[in-house]
Amino acid sequence: MSEKPTPRIDAYEFILENIDSVPHLEALILFWNSRPVGWAAEEMSSRLYVARDQADAIVRDLVRIQLVQQIAATPAKFSYHSRSPEQDDMMHRVDEAYRRDLVRISTMVHSKASSPVREFARAFRLRKDRDS
């Protein structure tokens, strides 16, 4: 008996499901393209042209969804967190899609519902999955 292959998620679908803002996406791509180099939130802030507290929040969000991890350093630094070859393949496709289709992806991310609305919807989706 052979195992069912894991369905390959489209890069655009991944972005819609996991990315809250263009700075989130740009931070993730920066982490991806500079791996295994670690970045402090202050460094990320200057690269993304956002306030330090916004950079902190972006990094925390990416850690929460397990795409970025904290590495041992002072001050605290963060880097891309490779959990599987499939995730790395997805990141490669996300990076390529963003380079090729920056305006479309930026517009798509900007048109999404606000982060609190998406979190509320995710809570119901998790409950539905648990109940099934």
Set out the fold topology.
Blueprint: H1 11-18, H2 22-34, H3 41-48, H4 52-64, E1 68-71, E2 77-80, H5 85-100, H6 102-110, H7 115-131
Antiparallel strand pairs: 1-2
Structure report:
- With 132 residues, this protein is mainly alpha-helical.
- It contains seven helices and two strands.
- A two-stranded antiparallel ribbon has the order 1-2.
- A hairpin with a 5-residue loop joins strand 1 (68-71) and strand 2 (77-80).
- It is globular, with a radius of gyration of 16 Å.
What is the structural class? mainly alpha
Quaternary arrangement of the chains shown? single chain
* Cα distance spanning the termini: 26 Å
In N-to-C order, the SSE pattern is HHHHEEHHH
Count of distinct strands: 2
Helix fraction, binned, reads 55-70%
Query: On the 0-100 scale, what is the average pLDDT?
Result: 83
Q: Runs with pLDDT <50, length 5+?
A: none
User: Which strands sit side by side, in order, in the main sheet?
Assistant: 1-2
* Biggest sheet character: 2 strands, antiparallel
Q: Give the CA-based shape.
A: globular
Radius of gyration: 16 Å
Number of helices: 7
| Strand portion | 5-15%
Q: Can you give keywords for this protein?
A:
132 residues, two-stranded antiparallel ribbon, single chain, mainly alpha
